[in-house]
Write a structure and sequence with these properties.
Chain lengths: ~190, ~230, ~210
């Protein structure tokens, strides 16, 4: 439906309309996991993977729902697919890389309630992206999420060493940093158009 | 979770898990379908009313409308069910064709923008414009809906068809605020460049698709005795 | 748990301040920041979330003996998703405009950690009556928190409140407040205030404890 090239869809999702900093999706893990750089990178990777799978599944489910004319089943089917995908990723990770699995801890199952993934599926459906555009969108969103997470973690690690007043420590400081990051990302607005 | 602890409750049987999931699933499905049916007529009423008001705003001369679709072989026929982006022909009280109303959609800065515009056959131009749905930034991008000089663009936005071809003579394009020199240009809004340009692109693409077709097939409708329902 | 008998009013009130979902538990932040750019959006989102919180809490509590441990999360998700779908259609029936301004965020209520968290931590272990109070309390606390953020952002960012223009034309709006960054800043501001108040509360308690000992 849209004539936007795949590249511009990717850049849009990663930078201009970054999922965390512009759409406010995926905030819970954003503040929870961004304290340490290493966990941030791992979380970014896991979320990107789940986003890709969720995007493909959402596209297929939507085809099915359109065929049977049952739009009201969209929300419930999307979230159930996402929950299953996260289960799958959990099992795979436990088998293939137990150290990463232990390091991620509680945050792995929390990806299910990550608004970014459901948001991705819903936005993609609303905008009527074709299959390849949806993939570009998911890759862009995942990359953007990982980028925001890593940037945040880097800044917060440095902040930990600084002399911050007690009142501001923790979430309040993270929020202010996020606000500044969000403003800086607005500078990407004219890119790729 | 692999320490051996005293069993506190008997392991749940597969039957009770199965029963729970299927039971909950059935209850949920019942709830969803009930609410959907209960609200469906009210929702479509709301949508129809909204669209009717919008059409009246962009093409006040139209007393009645007929929804049309494009068939595969390029003809215009009356629509039997509602397409995603409806197109209407407007008729006045004497059932004379006064214009066409087209819905168009495209990507703005934040998300998709949905617009409605009216095309006048007599003036070969877009004579009415309304934003139906936009998520643009309040105070910035959403000024395309309120800024007077921007709205003035659409009093007569040239959309003449190139004779003998299936496109517009001049592409509709957005220019910087204050630099409009031609009738087919849209004077943009400084500070809302991306949204203004998006509107230009949306209109250009839609007009290039629809206006040549409407012009070519309009004679068939002019003398027709099709009465439209509102 | 503690030997204290938790009164019914306490179940309701704890969601308003002591265990406020947004400022204390820091849950459900995504919608708090995303749809709070105007007060009316914040209010609608808060009410919709309260509705889902209440209804799903009641359902989970009523069915708690029927749902085995293994099927917990899947059942909760199904129930919550159904009520979210319901509220989505109800809002569309009430006002298309409201539905448009909230957009996909109504559907995103389903992944609001607050709702799943309350279902898991409270509703599945408590009676129907208490679950209703808990759900209402958390919902109202959430709505009030959202309104705080929304009111600040709308007044500073657009110069209006619930659409009513407050300032003369000469007021230069702080447009940043209706942008995403503004959401982060507004929330940080309120969080600082809440933290400060809590610190004073804790210090006052310590003083009375030391005085009596």
């Amino acid at each position: 439906m849209s004539d936007a090239s795949h590249w511009s869809v990717f850049i849009n999702a990663a930078l201009i309309n970054n999922f965390v900093l512009a759409y406010f999706l995926g905030i819970c893990p954003f503040f929870g996991v961004s304290a340490k750089l290493e966990t941030a990178v791992r979380m970014g990777g896991a979320v990107s993977f789940v986003m890709l799978v969720a995007s493909v599944c959402a596209y297929l489910i939507n085809l099915l729902l359109d065929a049977v004319n049952a739009p009201y089943l969209r929300i419930i089917s999307y979230i159930l697919v996402i929950a299953s995908t996260v289960q799958l990723v959990e099992m795979l990770m436990r088998k293939l890389s137990p150290t990463t699995f232990r390091a991620m801890g509680i945050y792995l199952p929390l990806i299910t309630t990550n608004c970014a993934i459901l948001g991705l599926a819903l936005f993609q459906t609303n905008r009527g992206y074709g299959f390849t555009s949806a993939i570009a969108y998911a890759l862009g969103a995942g990359a953007g999420f990982a980028l925001a997470l890593v940037l945040m973690a880097g800044v917060r690690e440095k902040l930990d060493l600084a002399n911050v007043p007690n009142l501001v420590k923790g979430t309040a400081a993270a929020l202010i940093v996020a606000g500044i990051l969000s403003m800086s990302f607005m500078g990407f607005a004219g890119l790729g158009r | 979770m692999n320490t051996v602890s005293p069993v506190q409750q008997p392991p749940t049987s597969a039957w009770s898990i199965y029963r729970a999931i299927v039971g909950i699933g059935a209850l949920c499905a019942l709830l969803i379908v009930t609410v959907y049916q209960a609200t469906a007529s009210r929702i479509s009423e709301n949508q129809e009313r909204f669209l009717a008001l919008a059409i009246a705003e962009v093409l006040p001369a139209a007393q009645s409308t007929v929804a049309i679709v494009l068939t595969e072989d390029g003809r215009l026929v009356e629509a039997t069910d509602a397409p995603a982006l409806p197109v209407f022909l407007g008729f006045d009280a004497n059932v004379e064709l006064v214009g066409a109303v087209v819905t168009a959609e495209g990507m703005g800065y934040q998300d998709n923008i949905r617009v409605l515009y009216a095309y006048s056959f007599d003036e070969d131009a877009i004579v009415g414009f309304k934003v139906l749905d936009s998520k643009e930034t309040p105070g910035l991008g959403d000024r395309v809906e309120t800024e007077t000089h921007f709205i003035a663009n659409f009093e007569k936005l040239d959309a003449t068809v190139m004779p003998g071809a299936g496109t517009l003579l001049n592409s509709i394009v957005t220019v910087k605020q204050g630099e409009k020199t031609e009738a087919w240009q849209i004077d943009g809004i400084t500070g809302a460049t991306i949204t203004s340009e998006a509107i230009g692109n949306i209109l250009n693409e839609s007009a290039n698709t629809w206006v040549p077709v409407l012009e070519r097939n309009s004679t068939a409708f002019r003398k027709s005795d099709m009465t439209g329902e509102r | 748990m503690l030997g204290k008998e938790v009164s019914s009013t306490d179940e309701f009130v704890k969601g308003l301040w002591r265990e406020n979902p947004v400022f204390v538990q820091v849950l459900g932040m995504c919608p708090a920041l995303a749809v709070s750019n105007t007060a009316i959006n914040a209010l609608t989102m808060g009410l919709a979330t309260t509705f889902v919180l209440l209804m799903s809490g009641m359902s989970v509590s009523a069915l708690r003996n029927f749902i085995p441990r293994e099927a917990r999360i899947v059942s909760f998700i199904c129930i919550i998703a159904s009520f979210v779908t319901a509220v989505d259609y109800i809002i569309q029936a009430i006002s298309l405009e409201l539905h448009r301004s909230l957009g996909a965020f109504i559907a995103l209520i389903v992944v609001n950690c607050l709702i799943l968290g309350r279902a898991e931590a409270f509703a599945s272990k408590n009676s129907l009556g208490r679950s209703v109070l808990d759900g209402l309390g958390m919902g109202v606390g959430f709505t009030v928190a959202l309104l705080w953020i929304g009111v600040v952002r709308e007044i500073l960012g657009s110069g209006t409140l619930f659409g009513v223009v407050l300032f003369p034309d000469t007021f230069q709006t702080w447009t940043v407040m209706v942008l995403p960054s503004g959401g982060f800043f507004a929330m940080a501001m309120w969080l600082l205030l809440v933290n400060w108040l809590k610190e004073r509360e804790a210090a006052a308690e310590k003083r009375t404890q030391e005085a009596t000992s």
